[in-house]
Amino acid sequence: MRLIATDLDGTLLRSGGVLSDRTADALRLARRSGATVVVVTARPPRFADPYAGLVDLAVCGNGAVVYDPTARQIVASHALDVPTARKTADALRAALPGIGCAVETGHRVFLEPAFTWRCANDTEACCPEPIQVELGSFEEVLDRAELITKILAHHPTMDVDAMLATAREALGDRVEVTHSGGAGLLEICAAGVTKASTLARMCAERGFLASDVVAFGDAPNDLSVLRWAGTSYAMGNAHPDVLAAVARRTLTNNEDGVAVVLEGLFA
């Protein structure tokens, strides 16, 4: 295998966002063996910074951004435009009463008051301003967002799978809607932007084929990559839809399931 594509939360990382020594060693082993390692995550670029030196690139925001964690630089972006973001938020409020919306820019998150979900570990010591910024309205959010990598939509009580089905029916093909397992939290990117679409474009630019790729994932937003890659593994802790779609299994994230496979491939 020439390229490793792995999700972060629930896949590469143990519970609590911990990268085990065994998994870090397995990533080093793969790179020493000549493989390119790419994180493919719903997380924004700032969450890839700790893995500089262990990974080559990061596909972030469910495909909205390609990021170089060593240079701390966005290499490419596939953003939502403001009119589409506004129409999407309006349609979501009509279909899912009680939701709140936020916009992720890749560097910061701008929230309307109804968006009550918070990411407890979304901080950056070198940033002089807060990462998560609450504004007075969604229009203010749109005014402040210099780049809309994705919309976040949260409902405090609804089941996220039910939310996803309703949102996809309401929004059609104007955007891409998915979730990564967060309670009541949907993630919306521009139409045609998925983890797989961006990874495939990045691979084509660098001379990799789908058959060169081994992929790992656990959540519905990983399905596009797991279906595209030549070899794919569902984590033992994966969402039922992932387990149903992917034939190969590895151990859970807390059992270092990614490392187990990489050790077998590159030892």
Automatic annotation (TrEMBL):
PANTHER family: HAD SUPERFAMILY HYDROLASE-LIKE, TYPE 3, PHOSPHOSERINE PHOSPHATASE. One of its GO terms (molecular function) is phosphatase activity. GO terms for cellular component: cytosol. Coiled coil: none annotated. This is Cof subfamily protein (Haloacid dehalogenase superfamily). Pfam families: Hydrolase_3. It comes from the Bacteria.
